[in-house]
Amino acid sequence: MLPDYIKPMLAKLSAPFDSPRFLYEIKWDGTRCLFFIEDGRIRLQNRRLNDITYRYPEFWDLPQRLSRNGVVFDGEIVVLKEGRPVFRLLQEREHVKSPVKIKFLAEKLPATYFVFDLLYLDGESIMEKPLKERKKLLREIIPESPFVAESDYILEKGKAFFKEVIAQGFEGVMAKDLESPYLPGKRVDFWLKFKPRGRRRCLIVGYLLRPDGTLKSLLVAEPTEKGLVFRGRVASGLNTHLADELLSRLKKLTAEKPENLKGSGFPKGTVWVRPELACEVSFQEITNHGQFRAPVLEKVFL
Fold it and tell me: Domain limits at 214?
């Protein structure tokens, strides 16, 4: 008997690398989804553990296409346009509840399920098996359907694969340890994701000092139509010479917190300044709180 739910295994961010221990596959820009198939029925569970079976009628016949019972797949649901996932089109599918509209969109914007893991087989968990064994079993049983495909992968050459994938317009790359088990709900080094770093022009709105009075980090905000959006603190990229020169300039701009600054999580001890100095910041991604993850100061326009 299959469990009521399984928390999806998660990945950490990483710079691209090569390794014979890892496989590399496309990071699909879609909705993470586990397919539970048992006794002629199918249930779709998203990352938040919600049942979304009703949204995707194109997958309802998979139990009849599958040669085995008691199966759980892990993968990503996407809507493709010219061979590329388009998240905006997927959102059209995600936000519809009317059965009539669901049927219409399933024909107009059919979804594809890219399967990348097998967690249960014949009603038994195989999550403790190494990934390379789970991949082999997956390839043997994946159902033939116009709406289902195996997520292909390569071995060893992660850096070159990442460059190729980004050049083709995909979101990024997943690197997975071939010997790793599947750890539900865990974010560990067995699964790593490569994503291109973004760059934004920001304004310096404040700074923090070390106990010895030297510059510790900058607080940056991005100008938008709705005002300044706080993007967090930046310390990487601040060398000693630049920090000294910046601090001298910033001390002359000391002011109250900018009235149009939006956001939260402002650190204690912030020295606010007039947002007059611009900078360029690179980052891994923007968090759910609207701040840069792993920011690096690339340039200051003094």
Answer: 198-301
